[in-house]
Amino acid sequence: MPSPTSLTPTGQALADGIQQQLQTGDIEVPLLPEVANRVIALSQDAESEIADLAQLIQSDPSLAAHVMRIANSAAYTPNASLVSLQQAITRLGMNLICDIALAASLSTKMFKAPGFESHINDIWKHALATALWAKEIARACRLNVEATFLCGLLHSIGQPVTIQAACDGAKRANVELSEDDALALAEQLNIEVGSCVLKSWEMPMIICEALQYFNDYKTAPHALEQTMIVNASALFATHMLDSEQLPRTELIAKEVLADLNLYQDEVEMLLEKRDIVVSSMEAMAES
């Protein structure tokens, strides 16, 4: 994402207001879709079965249709031969179907920020790319990929919520929220606001730490590996979406990649997966 600019006096006043809301617990947190909450619970239950996940997704016809369309996309099933959720889960695996269902149920439609829809869409696009790269990096590092997708998807959840809160604050104060202020606020308050959101949603510790310690992963008390992976995957996402902002040579030189014991040739091999990530992202991002 682009580097934030300094806040104007209006932007600072809105930031102070959001900070006050955080302290009093008055900030508006979007509701976590019930189906997303249940998918997360199922994905963490070692005793859950294919039929359980299929039944859950089928309880929401729109989501079921969306999941089947993605599962049958060229990114996952080139011959588009899957005809049932049970078949899709058997072929692609419960973890992947959970990821697809989560990407489908968690979307920009959760946020209300008139005039800033395109910015929230860009934030969500980067988050989805981060989630997909997180799985690739975890595999390359031979690390546990459990929850990596969700860690990546939610690492910037505070940004759209901050923009929504800033829009609400600007409306109440009868002032105009500038684009620069909105983006700066989103960047500066992401961790504080995002931590509030994840706490409200009762997310697992590993996901909360991946966000809370994102900018200082070495201090993560429990989820060090996951936090490093999310930090690295966000860099890969930035490079993929805007190589001018983060050129290849600068990406390869990032300290977090060395901390993950990824050598240059391994990073180069990861970068060769770009088309796979793009294809998956396009399939999941379609409405």
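The above is record 1. Record 2 follows with the same two-line structure.
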Amino acid sequence: MILVIDAINKDRFASVLDEMFKLRARVFGDRLGWQVNVVDGRERDVFDDLDPAYAVGLDDDGNVVSCVRALQTTGPHMLSDVFYAILDGEPPLRSPHLWESTRFCVDTQRLGRGRGPNSVSYATCELMIASLEAAKRAGVSDIVTVIDPVMDRVLKRSGNAPYDYVGRQAEMGKVPALAALLDCTDERIARIRKFSGIEGDVFLSEEEALCLLARRAVRAPAKSALEIYCDEQVAAATTTQERVAALRLRAALADRVRSRSDISA
């Protein structure tokens, strides 16, 4: 289910945003190797300081499993200020009815394969549906999103193919990037729902989300001093070697804890 977080309710969901920034660090920094700013295990940039809207996917246990960021194009945004090479000299598109969608990601470690609930495919489509429906409700007619060729294929395969592209494909770090245009229409949303089999409301209300997080807090066991130490070592790592060593230590501790749980069970 998708929770929408913006400037109005962000203080109520600070823990969700914190977990979302950690997910972005794992996906864009660790898995994809993008040149992003990761501090203390969290990926943030200057655009997160502009009070954007976020659509954040939560699983049944209250864990963040997906996220995407929406920015107005009338002010600073990534296509105009970071990925301007894609525009190839053309002025950026600016309109109160056009949003920019960036930092779209899902937790491939927590989610499984296939197309059922708790799968990468399901979470991806659910996030697409929520992004389009939230934009449409806000009076937005179109979305521009900077993507790589892999994501372009994901969009096409899921019934969410771009209707056009802006500028040209340009090299951005290790991968090429292009700017795609999506219209926020009922027809597009229906295609994604048909592909994914997702029916009904995909959104969590604030009250539902707070209840889910409260139940999660009750279930979560307190961390030991050693677990806290391992987390601190991961966050404090300043080199790749230090981070790898800290991650291995934390993984070894987790294996030890699981082994003891299996024995006691």
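The chain has a mean pLDDT of 90.
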